[in-house]
Design brief:
Distance between the termini: 37 Å
CATH architecture of the largest domain: 3-Layer(aba) Sandwich
Low-confidence stretches: none
Order of helices and strands: HEHHEHEHEHEHHHHHHHH
CATH class of the largest domain: Alpha Beta
Strand order of the largest sheet: 2-3-4-1-5
CATH superfamily of the largest domain: P-loop containing nucleotide triphosphate hydrolases
Structural class: alpha/beta
CATH topology of the largest domain: Rossmann fold
Mean pLDDT: 91
Largest sheet: 5 strands, parallel
Number of domains: 3
Helix content: 40-55%
Number of strands: 5
């Protein structure tokens, strides 16, 4: 990292960490709900902050932590913010994937050893007056052992301690963990909010195209800025808005362009765009109720097929072009068979 200390494996170079940002853009209703519970003395022991990846869930959690420390402790808000940003506030514990013992890279999961170490620290005398906060970012990275270890302390959390569990995929979490937490669902931001976040580090003339590609996720906007897209991702976005209208072979050219990216950054971004389209299609079909039952079954089958193909391509180092062409074909086929109920996006 050139400007920012690296504390997490997927950190974007030059972009402030969630604990470093001093304010939250958007999510005002969710933030207000938690602050109302704090004011009433009913702050939960566990808060599950869930929603799509990159919309500011961790940023909100750290912002709420600073407010909790200010209102329950005896330190100045600026001192609190500086210590939280530096990773040195005694009443704050952050649980993420740990660096490998070799010093090269990070472990692939949050291990049970990290959870046990956290629990041991929580059983010690607190370092400051006031409430304690634990941010698990994200809990999706826990394996079965570490998730069960977390569950035990969530069942009987220490006094005056709140866990913020960040999750991009709450459906994959243990039901017992979800049942122990107050659920806080966040949604993608509006374009104006995304623009405001991007402008915090980038000049105005650079962010317009990134806002379009972000789809409500500031992180994706930053990724788009790093990629420096020359039109390929925009072309994919246009194709996904109406997969039926372009000529049948249009997506083959897209697959050629994406597969030609030697770094693979555009390909990874494209995968996210495809997954987003399929997830939105499934949600739309589910919301339409019984008349869209066939469409929902097709969307679910499409998701499973694409997920399997991406996994196989990664495992066996298959040609990314062939994988993309097959998934594009499946999306177009789904759209053709359900044309009467799918509106262009």
């Amino acid at each position: 990292m050139s400007e920012v200390e690296q504390r997490e494996p997927d950190q974007i170079d030059g972009v402030p960490l969630p604990e470093v940002r001093r304010s939250v853009v958007g999510h005002s209703e969710a933030r207000g709900g938690i602050l109302a519970l704090l004011e009433a003395g009913r702050l939960p022991g566990g808060i599950l902050v869930h929603g799509p990846h990159g919309i500011g869930k961790a940023t909100l959690a750290f912002d709420l932590a600073r407010v909790i420390f200010e209102r329950t402790g005896d330190e100045d808000v600026h001192q609190i913010a500086e210590q939280v940003a530096a990773g040195g506030y005694p009443n704050l514990q952050v649980l993420r994937k740990a660096p490998r013992d070799s010093g090269k890279g990070y472990y692939t999961v949050i291990r049970v050893d990290e959870v046990r170490s956290l629990i041991e620290r929580l059983h010690r005398t607190r370092g400051r007056a006031g409430h304690r906060v634990v941010v698990v970012d994200p809990i999706d990275d826990c394996n079965a052992s570490s998730a069960n270890a977390l569950l035990k302390i969530l069942e009987e959390p220490p006094p005056d301690t709140t866990f913020f569990l960040i999750s991009h995929r709450p459906g994959s979490l243990l039901p017992t963990i979800k049942s122990r937490c107050h659920a806080l669902a966040l949604r993608p931001l509006g374009d104006s909010d995304v623009r405001e976040v991007l402008l915090s580090t980038k000049p105005d003339e650079e962010v317009g195209h990134a806002v379009e590609l972000a789809s409500g996720r500031p992180r994706r906007g930053f990724e788009a800025l790093l990629i420096g897209d020359e039109g390929t991702l925009s072309a994919l976005g246009n194709w996904l808005r109406d997969p039926i209208r372009p000529p049948p072979a249009a997506h083959i050219g897209l697959a050629d362009l994406l597969a030609a990216d030697k770094e693979g950054a555009q390909g990874r971004f494209a995968r996210d765009m495809l997954r987003d389209w399929m997830a939105a299609e499934a949600r739309s079909a589910a919301a339409a109720g019984p008349p869209a039952r066939r469409r929902l079954a097709s969307a679910t089958e499409l998701w499973d097929k694409a997920d399997h193909m991406f996994a196989e391509a990664d495992e066996y180092n298959l040609d990314p072009r062939q994988t993309l062409v097959a998934i594009f074909d499946a999306i177009r086929k789904h759209a053709l068979h359900n044309a009467s109920s799918i509106e262009p996006r």
